[in-house]
Amino acid sequence: MENVVIFDSPGKGRGLKATKEFWAGDVIFSEPSLSAVVFDSLAERICHSCFRRQEKLQRCGQCKFAHYCDRTCQRAAWAEHKQECSAIKAYGKVPNENIRLVARIMWRLDKEGSLMSDMQLITLDELEDHLNDMQEDDLKELKVDIHNFLDYWPRNSKQHTIDDISHIFGV
């Protein structure tokens, strides 16, 4: 990106500094999301593809967890839901939203690598995970999520180190 530069600010972390003047309303940079999941509390009221709230949603016939507006949304989500669907069936229950999100991110990284677009400022590996700054209670929750993630993560998927998994949870 020729109009911005990443810099470190001691005590504050990384920042983004403009190298030219911008006007109100200018888009400085834009990047699509790496992954997304529906919050557990909204899982039956939000389409897992387009994220619209609907009164009546159709449930995935395989895992019985994911909900969709219609067949169009279900087909659109299948490439990403396919691995999650079989993992939920094998695990025997639906893991929490944090575990589902980390799994989706890791499946995408395994498939596409860490560079997602030409406009990407930094890779996921370069993002701060702040694991060293976590409180003891938060670290306990993190360890439980990691343990449950390891039970959920399919044996036929690429296996990752605890450090890599912890980093993704921390980010």
From TrEMBL:
<keyword id="KW-0863">Zinc-finger</keyword>
<keyword id="KW-0808">Transferase</keyword>
<feature type="domain" description="MYND-type">
    <location>
        <begin position="47"/>
        <end position="85"/>
    </location>
</feature>
<dbReference type="Pfam" id="PF01753">
    <property type="entry name" value="zf-MYND"/>
</dbReference>
<dbReference type="InterPro" id="IPR050869">
    <property type="entry name" value="H3K4_H4K5_MeTrfase"/>
</dbReference>
<protein>
    <recommendedName>
        <fullName>[histone H3]-lysine(4) N-trimethyltransferase</fullName>
        <ecNumber>2.1.1.354</ecNumber>
    </recommendedName>
</protein>
<keyword id="KW-0862">Zinc</keyword>
<dbReference type="InterPro" id="IPR002893">
    <property type="entry name" value="Znf_MYND"/>
</dbReference>
<keyword id="KW-0949">S-adenosyl-L-methionine</keyword>
<keyword id="KW-0489">Methyltransferase</keyword>
<dbReference type="InterPro" id="IPR046341">
    <property type="entry name" value="SET_dom_sf"/>
</dbReference>
<keyword id="KW-0479">Metal-binding</keyword>
